[in-house]
Design goal:
Layout lengths: L4 H23 L9 H13 L12 H30 L10 E5 L7 E5 L8 E4 L2 E4 L1 E5 L2 E7 L8 E7 L10 E3 L2 E3 L3 E5 L5 E6 L14 E6 L19 E2 L5 E7 L4 E9 L2 E9 L5 E9 L4 E8 L6 E6 L2 E6 L5 H4 L4 E2 L3 E5 L4 E6 L4 E5 L2 E8 L11 E12 L9 H8 L3 E4 L14 E3 L4 E8 L6 E7 L5 E7 L5 E5 L5 E5 L1 E2 L2 E6 L4 E7 L1
Antiparallel strand pairs: 1-7, 1-27, 2-6, 3-4, 3-7, 5-6, 8-9, 9-10, 10-11, 12-13, 12-18, 14-15, 15-16, 16-17, 17-26, 18-25, 19-20, 19-22, 21-24, 22-23, 23-26, 24-25, 28-31, 29-30, 30-36, 31-35, 32-33, 32-36, 34-35
Helix pairs in contact: 1-2, 1-3, 2-3
Length: 522
């Protein structure tokens, strides 16, 4: 689940990039004639090729990953080109002459989070105006990159909006505080020990989410020498050899608003260095932007969170759903689950509250009792002796929540973390069109719109959804283009049954975890 981290990260990024490219291509006013079907098909085939075993598990020779990295670069070039073309085609119809620095903005998400764009200009804007909002903007230099960060504009969630970066005063400022060993926002307060390890994550009402007397965001290093297959296996005995990396070379508060507050830690161990920025801001929860320069042999690096939650089972996302696994080792089967896989999140919840751990490209996890851990890097020496050596960047988020596991508090936030804001600079123009509504939306928040694309063999629109909360019911699709007909289809887009259409709404029934494909004739 962890070997060849770059390969896994690129796979995740390309999956989301092509998902966004498909949806934006359907927004294009010239759809379906303008839909880049051949380019998208070629890009998807490269992604699927590199999901072959033994490529994506991380158990191939070095030459395979040299090829794979080149393949993903081709996918990124194609996907980013399509996204930029579509953003400019759509945004140019909305950009006004009065705009100073207009950008077309789009985030394929239903919840706001931290957004960013690279920024090289000397002028540093104070705000971003998009739709009815004038949002604060903050210039950040992080890991050698200069960028603007800001909350995702509501007008850009699931659709395209034009935003203008100016020196206007923001219409609001979030409440942010930072002291030597504490950062706070409107929702959470995070306390640190002198080395930057977390000792407390509390809400405003004093609810504590970290076990008393324990350290969270605790990096742990393990001897990782499996009996047989170095890149394939982690043996259970490896997890008995851990050393806590408590001491830090440095710890300081490095950001104090207006968008977020952040602390930075630097830890050195062996031949490697961890540099991490821990922040509270627009991202739901505590955000950990991480850079690791990794040069170890036969080692495994994990990060641990002992949370203040009591549950015999933890929840792990899989493709189009989730599974529960025990948090104890009562049987031999339970003992064998010492390292398990998950997609974008895991969650540990009791009756009234819980904690989710979200990631943007890490798949190995374990939960024992109340301790949630994620595997970050390995250093196997066969069949690729250079596996994972070098610099890695990734982000994870710890997200406390006050309800039983729910779509809008976990699944949507995990999608938002993995679906970055897409932006394209525009020229000020005479665009007269107003904000675009979402092309397709669903009435039920537990039904995820996973894909919006052109049909493979016609000019119809395909919408693929899945139920994420293990419930059944009925939902309605709202479609801006007011379809004249709709069909329930199989995964190959073959019609199964005609659906009733009325006033831009399409109703359908769903079962727990069901994948639903709907074809729309617009």
């Amino acid at each position: 689940y962890t070997s060849q981290a770059l390969n896994k990260k690129l796979n995740r990024e390309c999956e989301f990039l092509l998902r966004d490219a498909e949806l934006l291509s359907c927004f294009d006013p010239a759809f379906p004639a303008s839909y880049p079907q051949a380019d998208l098909e070629a890009a998807w085939k490269l992604v699927l090729l590199n999901q072959f075993h033994d490529i994506i598990p991380g158990s191939s020779v070095k030459e395979v990953y040299d090829d794979s990295t080149r393949d993903y670069a081709k996918v990124q070039e194609a996907g980013e080109r399509i996204v930029a073309e579509k953003l400019r085609a759509i945004g140019s119809r909305m950009a006004s002459e009065a705009a100073q620095r207009p950008y077309a903005l789009f985030q394929n998400s239903i919840v706001p989070t931290q957004a960013s764009i690279p920024w090289t200009e000397e002028f540093v804007p104070a705000s971003l105006t998009a739709g009815e909002e004038t949002l604060p903007v903050q210039l950040v230099e992080e890991f050698g990159e200069r960028k603007l960060i800001f909350p995702t504009p509501a007008a850009a969630l699931g659709t395209v909006a034009v935003g203008d970066f100016t020196d206007a005063t923001p219409s609001y400022r979030p409440r942010l505080k930072a002291s030597n060993r504490r950062i706070e926002n409107d929702v959470l307060s995070v306390r640190f020990d002198p080395h930057g390890n977390i000792t407390s994550i509390q809400t405003e009402d004093g609810t504590e989410f970290i076990e008393a007397g324990k350290l969270a965001n605790l990096f742990q290093i393990f001897e990782d020498k499996p009996n047989f297959w170095s890149a394939w296996d982690i043996d259970a005995f490896a997890l008995e050899t851990g050393t806590d990396l408590i001491r830090s070379e440095s710890f300081e508060i490095v950001e104090r608003g207006p968008v977020r507050v952040a602390a930075e830690i630097v830890k050195r161990f062996g031949n490697s260095t961890i540099r991490q920025r821990i922040s509270l801001g627009p991202t739901p929860g505590v955000r950990f932007d991480t850079e690791i320069d990794w040069h170890e042999e036969d080692k495994l690096l994990k990060v641990a969170f002992p949370v203040n939650v009591n549950s015999p089972r933890a929840t792990y996302e899989i493709q189009f759903g989730h599974v529960e696994r025990p948090t104890h080792r009562n049987t031999s089967w339970d003992m064998a689950r010492f390292e398990v896989c998950a997609q974008k999140w895991i969650d540990l919840s009791e009756g009234g509250q819980g904690v989710a751990l979200l990631n943007d490209g890490k798949y190995g996890h374990d939960t024992f009792g109340n301790v949630m851990r994620m595997s970050l890097l390995r250093a196997p020496k066969a069949p690729d002796p250079t596996c994972d050596m070098g610099r890695h960047r990734f982000t994870y988020v710890v997200m406390p929540h006050f309800m039983p596991f729910a779509f809008d508090s976990v699944v949507a936030s995990a999608y938002a973390l993995n679906a970055p804001l897409r932006a394209a600079a525009l020229e000020p123009g005479s665009g007269a069109e107003g904000p675009l509504p979402q092309l397709v939306s669903c009435s039920n928040r537990n039904v995820v719109i996973e894909t919006v694309k052109k049909a493979e063999d016609s000019d119809d629109l395909i919408v693929r959804l899945y139920e994420c909360h293990n419930t059944r019911g009925r939902a309605e699709l709202s479609v801006v283009r007011r379809p004249s007909a709709a069909w329930l289809c199989d995964l190959e887009e073959n019609p199964i049954a005609e659906l009733e259409v009325g006033e831009g709404l399409v109703g359908f029934d769903f079962k727990p975890f069901e994948i639903v494909t709907i074809k729309l004739r617009c």
